[in-house]
Specification:
The protein is mostly beta strands. The protein is built from no helices and 10 strands. A hairpin with a 4-residue loop joins strand 7 and strand 8.
Length: about 120
């Protein structure tokens, strides 16, 4: 069974940091690029960051550039998203996804909630 399970979301104050994790199972993780998306209430889902299958190529959205680091451990079938200097506008449900773009696959996690509030 193909599965992605996110964890690590929390309530944090502005300026804080979080590390989100995504555990993959049911497919050969090392063969696929992966991404983090997020969706805030009332807004469309947006790409946050993506990483190539080997981890050598990484990219992030302009809205989070300089504040996030995407990484993966193919031996552990895990992907991570480190977010620093969290802002109120980072509040959203964060999803792990197989592929670079939303329509690359139908493989999504259930999401982990990040809430930034003072």
């Amino acid at each position: 069974q193909v599965q992605l399970v996110e964890s690590g979301g929390d309530l944090v104050q502005p300026g804080g940091s979080l590390r989100l994790s995504c555990a993959a199972s049911g497919f050969v993780f090392s063969r696929y690029p992966m991404s983090w998306f997020r969706q805030a209430i009332g807004k469309e889902r947006e790409l946050v960051a993506s990483i190539s299958s080997s981890g050598a190529v990484r990219s992030s959205a302009d809205s989070v550039k300089g504040r996030v680091t995407i990484s993966r451990d193919n031996d552990k079938n895990m992907m991570y998203l480190q977010i620093n200097n969290l802002k109120l506008e980072d509040t959203a449900l964060y999803y792990c996804h197989q592929g670079y773009r939303a329509d690359d696959s139908s493989i999504w996690g259930q999401g982990t909630q990040v809430t930034v509030s003072s």
